[in-house]
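Query form — protein Alpha/beta hydrolase

QUESTION: What is the three-dimensional structure of this chain?
INPUT:
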Amino acid sequence: MPTVTVGDALVHYTRTGTGPALVLVHGTGSAGAELTWGRLAPRFADRHTVIALDLSGTDRTADGGGPLTVEGLARQVAAVVEDAAAGPADVLGFSLGAPVAAAVAASRPELVRRLIMVAGWIRTDADEYMRNLFALLRRLGDLDAGAFGRLLTMTGFSRGFLNAVGRQGVEDLVSNVPPTPGTLRHVDLDARVDIGPLLPLVRARTLVVGCAQDATVPVTCSRELHAAIPGSAYAEIDAGHVAFFERPDEFVKLVRDFVRAP
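ANSWER: The structure tokens for Alpha/beta hydrolase are given below.
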């Protein structure tokens, strides 16, 4: 598997498919790209070169283990785009990956053709709900791994989806994101996100996707993100935080239509 060195990190990524480059930036969790994009990447690979990287904090990317920053992770994304000879690329970021993707577009505009931010937000400490949610997750990560996974599952998926997958399906989801040291590094960064100063620098055509039933990043945060980027497009999916698990067909069509539009 290809890797690229960025500072003290050896960043792992995969590259599949053919066509214009689509870079996928995952959210919180040490399983990284495989857990987030494993089901979805093949659906884009028939028309795109799909590049999915593992940011610091994941199992596949080794680094010094220090505190993470949005800007530092953005440098990792930019380095992968350059290493894969994929720029300018369409960059899609989910959850924590959304502010990271925005930082790439702001700092390295020559590398980003189009920007897609799914379930993203501008600043954590401006929202008491999110500030307290991440503080609770950080505390549960230290005290109760089962409760940590259960809270992430309850806030990550809509009630209808959880009922549809049933009890065993829910229990499987609970075990998907254990509070590993890397995951807790992500949660720590979640609590410190502030990309307000970067947004005026975004020049790429941008699509902001909100999730109407999102209990991790309330949909109002996506609407605020859209309002802060002049000329951006906006769409909502009637699903929980991980909307592409709940409504994959709708999500794939939305992204494809946006990146193919003239």
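ADDITIONAL NOTE: The chain has a mean pLDDT of 97.
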